[in-house]
């Protein structure tokens, strides 16, 4: 079933003694806003976790296959779309970018039908074998920590070496030193937006929406690693609009959720060090607040 409502949502999650999103251009240090010191987690990182969760429970089978997955070759996926819609002859074209206008439309529809992340987040599929471009109905911002974070650097030791030559150099000591970066604690908030109009264009359905909520609630539970420490979803607040266009600006709804550090806490090290207050009075006409997870 198609969507008849616009949605805006706020997602809260935290990390303890971990690196929620390392920056490869900075030695994999936790990402931070250089001016404020507040931690950042990219929307790409969060979407990856959603993709992984959907793969986990849907086994990457249509209509819940995943387009952007590890080690995938995108043009090979585009080729499957052309074969599925009966456009094999166009694959033999000498043109740099294959596909007539009608074929591209059909291929784009096939991709939306079979790949959850395409009809959810959109995709640029015009490389080589052209399946067009999709503007996804679900968009998310970077997550930003409530307070500044400070990265801690830890020395770690591996009690083994990779080669015999390394062992000989160490006279059999077989130790390898390394570095690990974590933040002691950070509470992050990200904002999300769901367009009913774009959902109806891509085929993003009510069932897909429920799968998205399920993913946001549970994605950290199935993404454990030593590097990421302990990460958990702490709040998911959904503003449901009565109509497709929406009944209030998103920022005015987001402003109703206030997250503050308790007055007797100098440095936060736990979720309970914060207070979350939600202004539910005089909600705009046509807007309903749904608390999927509350604290």
Q: What oligomeric arrangement do these chains adopt?
A: single chain
- What sort of overall outline do the alpha carbons produce when their principal axes are compared? flat
Instruction: Provide the domain count.
Output: 2
Q: Helicity, in percent?
A: 25-40%
Largest sheet properties: 8 strands, antiparallel
Count every helix, treating DSSP H or I runs of 4 or more residues as helices: 8
SSE ordering: EEEEHHHHEEEEEHEHHEHEEE
- SSE-based structural type: alpha+beta
Mean pLDDT: 93
Distance between the termini: 31 Å
Regions with little confidence, pLDDT below 50 for 5+ residues: none
Number of DSSP E strands: 14
Q: Work out the strand percent.
A: 25-35%
CA radius of gyration is 23 Å
Name some characteristics of this structure.
single chain; 295 residues; alpha+beta; 8 helices; 14 strands; 26% helix
Q: Can you characterise this structure?
A:
It is flat, with a radius of gyration of 23 Å. It has 295 residues and is of the alpha+beta class. The model has no long low-confidence stretch (mean pLDDT 93). Strands 1, 4, 7, 8, 9, 10, 11 and 14 form an eight-stranded antiparallel beta sheet that branches. The protein has a two-stranded antiparallel sheet with strand order 2-3. Strand 2 and strand 3 form a beta hairpin. The longest helix is centred in the first third of the chain and has 16 residues. The protein has two domains: 196 residues, no CATH class; 77 residues, no CATH class. The chain is built from eight helices and 14 strands. Helix 2 crosses helix 3.
């Amino acid at each position: 079933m198609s969507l008849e409502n616009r949605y805006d949502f706020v997602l809260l999650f935290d990390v303890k003694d971990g690196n929620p999103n390392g920056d490869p251009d900075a030695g994999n240090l936790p990402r931070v806003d250089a001016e404020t010191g507040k931690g950042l987690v990219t929307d790409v990182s969060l979407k990856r976790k959603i993709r992984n969760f959907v793969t986990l429970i849907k086994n990457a089978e249509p209509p819940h296959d995943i387009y952007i997955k590890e080690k995938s070759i995108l043009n090979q996926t585009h080729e499957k779309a052309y074969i599925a819609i009966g456009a094999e002859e166009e694959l033999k074209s000498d043109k740099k970018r294959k596909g007539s206008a009608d074929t591209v439309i059909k291929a784009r529809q096939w991709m939306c039908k079979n790949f959850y992340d395409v009809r959810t987040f959109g995709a640029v599929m015009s490389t080589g074998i052209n399946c067009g471009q999709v503007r996804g109905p679900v968009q998310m911002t970077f997550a930003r920590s409530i307070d500044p974070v400070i990265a801690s650097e830890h020395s770690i030791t591996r009690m083994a070496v990779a080669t015999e030559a390394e062992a000989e150099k160490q006279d059999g000591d077989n130790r390898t030193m390394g570095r690990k970066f974590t933040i002691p604690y950070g509470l992050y908030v990200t904002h999300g937006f769901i367009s009913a109009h774009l959902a109806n264009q891509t085929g993003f359905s009510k069932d897909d929406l429920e799968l998205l909520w399920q993913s946001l609630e549970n994605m950290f539970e199935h993404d454990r690693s030593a590097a990421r420490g302990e990460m958990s979803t702490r709040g998911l607040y959904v503003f449901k609009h009565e109509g497709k266009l929406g009944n209030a600006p998103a920022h005015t709804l987001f402003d109703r959720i206030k997250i503050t550090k308790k007055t007797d806490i100098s440095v936060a090290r736990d979720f309970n060090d914060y207070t979350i207050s939600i202004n539910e009075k005089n909600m705009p006409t046509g807007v309903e607040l749904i608390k999927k997870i509350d604290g």
